[in-house]
Amino acid sequence: MQRLGLKRLFTALCVLLVAVTVGTATAGAAALVHSEPPPSGNISVLQTATGPTAPCLPIALVARSSSSSDSATFRLKITLLAPLCAPITASAVIYAMPGNGNAWPQQLQEKLSFTLQAAGVTEVVFTKPASPVQFDVVTGATPQQIAPWLQWHGPLLFPFDTSTSQQVGIYGPPPVVPEAPLTLLLPLSAAAVMVGGGTLLMMRRNRQVVGSADSPGLDSFR
């Protein structure tokens, strides 16, 4: 009986140890880490912890990205499968473009920085304004003005994935052609008819004159 009691006690302790270990590894699952409201309505960041707290790994081994876009927003989803050994500060930036087919130089319009370290999901949402802009998530410097012949911002968070950034409205909205009023179209149509009719009449007269000049006279048959 004493051996049986000790065996049960040992089993219970093992189960308790496993439960504590699993609970520690998954602590914070589906817990909101950070939510940054958009300061001007154009950028928002939502971070949620959904993974283990150990072991830590480099970002290149655990980071995944996906993006989506519609007429109103551009969304970048950053997933960390495990925590990072060192935190990384990233910045969601909006750079304004000149438009009309010109992308450069660009002016920094808005910036929102956030930290990546805990395993989980970070969603960056850009709201598309009416003006031409470029959306990027970068690490490092974010100069006020960038261009290929000037300074450049820091590297993209995912340097080899161009789908994590987007340009919007570089060529501007489609041109608006105003509709001419009917009172203007009617006189223009009448004028076009008159000009066309006058031209046709002059062509006919010219043909008659040329024809009469080239036709043989009576003296030519003598």
Textual characterization of the structure:
It is a single chain. By secondary structure, the chain is of the alpha+beta class. The protein has a domain of 142 residues. 27% of the residues lie in helices and 30% in strands. The protein has 3 helices and 10 strands. The strands form 2 sheets. A 5-stranded antiparallel sheet has the order 1-2-7-4-3. A 5-stranded antiparallel sheet has the order 9-6-5-8-10, with no helix packed on it. A hairpin with a 3-residue loop joins strand 3 and strand 4. The chain is globular. The N and C termini lie far apart (156 Å). The C terminus is likely disordered. Keywords: Membrane, Transmembrane, Transmembrane helix.
Strand content: 25-35%
- The amount of helix comes to 25-40%
Average pLDDT over all residues: 76
Shape: globular
Instruction: Tally the helices.
Output: 3
* End-to-end separation: 156 Å
Keywords: Membrane, Transmembrane, Transmembrane helix
Short account of what is shown:
This protein is an alpha+beta fold.
For the structure shown, list the relevant keywords.
5-stranded antiparallel sheet; single chain; disordered C terminus; about 220 residues; globular; alpha+beta
